[in-house]
Specification:
Elements (H helix, E strand, L loop, with lengths): L1 H4 L2 H11 L9 E2 L5 E4 L2 E5 L12 H14 L14 H14 L3 E5 L2 H12 L5 E5 L4 H8 L4 E5 L4 H9 L7 E6 L11 H11 L2 E5 L14 H4 L8 E5 L9 E5 L1 H10 L1 H5 L5 H16 L2 H20 L10 E7 L1 H13 L2 E2 L1 E3 L9 E6 L6 H17 L4
Parallel strand pairs: 3-12, 5-6, 5-7, 7-8, 8-9
Antiparallel strand pairs: 1-2, 2-3, 4-10, 9-10, 11-14, 13-14
Helix pairs in contact: 3-12, 4-12, 5-6, 5-10, 7-8, 13-15
The structure holds pyridoxal-5'-phosphate.
């Protein structure tokens, strides 16, 4: 009976296979390094978000080990019951100081942070205005609220202005955007967004997942990058990408922190981080402050690699950050390029519909501070060989 009732799963899997969307994990053996072993093959790794190599940084490792020894493996409860440890609050103080905001609140992930923030502030009758390319965690966070949603074309300021103009009747308006867009590597036009928000009295929320540790002084993010400290009401950041560990946070006002402590459901109903996570995140902030040369190296490597791809004749879109797409058009061609690159020793994820429009299918590359020139050259040579073989260049 159960057997038969569960047959729908086979149909759903078959449908994915028919559309060429069926995937299996690539499995990493050992550490997340720029030259790493996935599925038993050593490859130049252009697929991790480990921008600064902090996943394996000695200071983060040491901090995590010390926290396990002194504080144990788990936190034992949700934040609002018995699961707020002093190290959680120490991380929040350090983050607030780092981000130049009054307060921060850390949640289990960037995904949870978006859900927590949006669910805390949006109510029926409110309006949220969202960039069409915003991250899935924003889209899902919005779906859980009863606010009215309007979408503006990607980074289109005339489009945003039109929506604001036609929406003057809404009392509470929130503009939400990624700081850096994860599939294209372009930066949101935050100065214009902030100006429009001030003109139309809207709240601004920026999700800085791919900018935390990457943009701004010491990696403070896209708001700091544009000199907009103090003019963006709500920042969401992740501790899972360049920061090298796991977690997400709201950086903003003390009163928003207080509200979220009462209303952010991932905080209320899901256990807080193990102390080792908080400790390693604190160490990550220390590294950003003490070793800014890592960020310089990241940007040098990004410029070198992007330039190499452009010289070979690949279409890299309008990336402005270490995320560089190689846009090839058809989805099956992107997957073929990714597979052939992998077979030749370069891991760059193929991305097609529905993550990006079919005609903009691509492989996405992310270089890190820890790639050597030799690794990047090897990757470029492989891109040249496979690109010619598949008649992309
Ligand atoms: C990766 C990402 C997230 C999710 O962050 P996690 O900490 O991995 O949950 C949220 N928003 C954006 C824009 C992202 O790129």
């Amino acid at each position: 009976m159960t057997q038969k009732a569960m047959d729908f799963i086979d149909d759903l899997l078959q449908a994915l296979k028919d559309k060429g969307l069926y995937r299996q994990f690539r499995v990493l053996e050992g550490e997340q390094l720029p030259l790493a072993k996935f599925d038993g093959r050593e490859v130049v790794n252009l697929s991790s978000n480990n921008y600064l190599g902090l996943n394996t940084h000695p200071r983060l490792r040491a901090a995590a080990i010390k926290a396990v020894e002194e504080l144990g493996a788990g936190s034992g409860a949700v934040r609002t019951i018995a699961g707020t440890m002093s190290i959680h609050e120490e991380l929040e103080r350090r983050l607030a100081e780092f981000k130049h905001t009054e307060a921060t609140l850390v949640l289990q992930s960037g995904f949870a942070a978006n859900q927590g923030v949006l669910g805390s502030i949006l109510e029926e009758g409110d309006l949220v205005i969202s960039d069409e390319l915003n991250h899935a965690s924003i889209i899902d966070g919005l779906r859980l609220t009863k606010a009215t949603r309007k979408i503006y074309p990607h980074s289109d300021m005339d489009g945003l202005k039109d929506v604001l103009e036609e929406s003057k009747d809404f009392k509470k308006k929130l503009i939400v955007t990624d700081g850096v867009f994860s599939m294209d590597g372009d930066i949101a036009p935050l100065p214009q967004i902030v100006e429009l928000a001030e003109q139309y009295e809207a709240i601004v929320m920026v999700d800085d997942a791919h900018s935390s540790g990457v943009l701004g002084k010491n990696g403070r993010g896209s708001i700091n990058h544009f000199g907009l400290d103090g003019r963006v009401d709500i920042q969401v950041g992740t501790l899972s990408k360049a920061m090298g560990v796991m977690g997400g946070y709201m950086a903003g006002s003390q009163r928003l922190r207080e509200l979220m402590i009462h209303r952010a459901r991932p905080l209320l109903f899901s256990t807080s981080h193990p102390p080792a996570v908080a400790a390693a995140c604190i160490a990550a902030i220390d590294v950003l402050l003490d070793e800014p040369e890592l960020i310089q190296k990241l940007w040098d490597n990004a410029a070198y690699f992007k330039d190499g791809l452009n010289k070979l004749g690949f279409n890299t879109g309008h990336s402005e950050t270490p995320i560089t797409p190689v846009i090839v058009g058809k989805g099956d061609l992107a997957m073929k390029l990714s597979d052939r690159l992998f077979a030749e020793g370069v891991f760059a994820q193929g991305i097609g519909y529905p993550t990006v429009p079919e005609a903009k299918s691509r492989v996405r590359t992310i270089v890190t501070a820890t790639h050597t020139k030799a690794m990047l050259d090897r990757a470029l040579e492989t891109f040249e060989k496979v690109g010619k073989e598949l008649a992309i260049i």
